[in-house]
Amino acid sequence: MCALGDGVNYLLYGGAGGGGKSWLGCTWLLMVCSHFAGVRYFVGRNNLVDTRASVLVTFTKVASAMQYEAYRFNDEGIQFANGSVIVFLDLSYYPKKDPMFERFGSKEFTGGWIEEAGEVHELAFEVLKSRIGRHLNDRYDIPAQILITCNPKKNWLYNNFYKPWREGALKEPYAFIQALVEDNTYIGKDYIEALDNIKDRVTRERLRLGMWEYDDNPAALLDYDAIADLFTNDHCTAIGKQYISADVALKGRDLYVRANRSGDTIYLTTAPIMEADEVVDDIKRSSRERAVPHSQIVVDTDGVGAYVPRYVGGAVFQFHGEARSFSGNYSNLKSECGYKLAELIQQRRLRVICQDASIKTRLQEELGVLIADNIDNDTRKRSIITKDKMKAIIGHSPDILDALLMLMVFEVRPSRGGIQRVGL
Question: Distance between CA 72 and CA 57 in Å, rounded?
Fold first, then answer.
C-alpha cells in the first residue's frame, strides 16, 4: 500500500509548473504515515525555510481535502497521532562546513521526498539513498523509496533520470514520469494563461511545456548531452601519449587542479589548499609516476603559477591565455584551446574520470559557461567569454575547466608533422 511502484526505489516526477508535484508528495506522505504507525519519512528542499513554508501550506490543503486531522506541526516537522513523523530537512550544500553531507550520517528513515530537486546537490540525494529503508521497513514490508519532484533542470536529474528514460535505457530501481500542467485537472485557467504569457523563451519551455531539451544559450559551445556523456564515453581509451596540466592556486585561493591525460582519458585531481612547494612536488610526482616528459606538461603562468616551471624544471609549457593563437583564427590562445576542447567533447572523443561527485557536478557547471563571445560581430577571429564573465555566471573561478582547456595546447600547437593529435 502507498508504494511508488513495484521495483522502484527512486521516482522522479518532473516537468511543467502546475503539474501537481507538491500535491502528489504531500498526499503520498500523508497516506503512508497515517496508515503505518511509527514510520519516519523526510521531506527536504535546498533550505529549511523553503521546506517548511511550502510543505505546510500544501500539506494543510491535502489533509483538509482528505478530512484528516490526526496530526500537528512542530519544530521537527509533522507529528502524527499514531507516532509517525515527517521530518523537515535542510538540503543546502555547505562546501566548507559539510561538503559530504555528513550531518545525515546518523539519520534513519523509512523513505522520503526531495522537493524542487533542481536546486539540490546530487550528493545530498546519494547520501539520503543510504539513509532510507532503515526504520520499520521490514516490519511493514515497505519498500525504501524516495520521491523526487522538480521542474526541468540540466543537472544530475537530467543525467540520471530523464536522458536514460528518453533513450529507453532507464532501469529499476529508477523511474521517471513526465509532468505536464494538463495532468492537473484542478489547475485554474488563469495559471495556465500566466505560463503561456511568460516572455522568456527558455523559462516558458521549461515551466509551460515541461521541456527538458530547452536551449538555454545559443552561444554555448557545448550541448548538455555532450557534457553528460563526457563521464561515460567508455569507447575512449587510456592508450596513448601522457600529458599533465596544472591550474595553480595557492593556499586560500580558488582550487588547485591537476589533469592527467592518457590517450583520450583525463583523470582529475583537485585540492582546496596547496602550499607552493606542495604544488611543485605534486606535479613532479605525477610526472615520475606516469613517465610524462616535462615538455608534455603545461602550467598556467599568468598568475601565481608563474614560479612553477622554474622549480619543476625542463621544457614545461608556460600557458598565457592572452597569447596569440597558433592558427591566427582566434582572439587568443585560450579561445583557440576552448574551441578545441568543445570540439573534442562534442564529438565524444574525450572521457573524464573523477572520484568526487561534487567535482563532477562542478565541472559540468563550468563546461556550461564555455560560451562564444561577440557571436554577432562580423569578425573572422573567434573568442570565448572572459574568466570574469564566467565567474559572474557560476559564482566561482572555472578552475577545472581551465585545466582541461590548457591540455588542448598540445592539440593546437603545430608539430613538425603538422598539428599533433595527442589521443592517437
Answer: 13
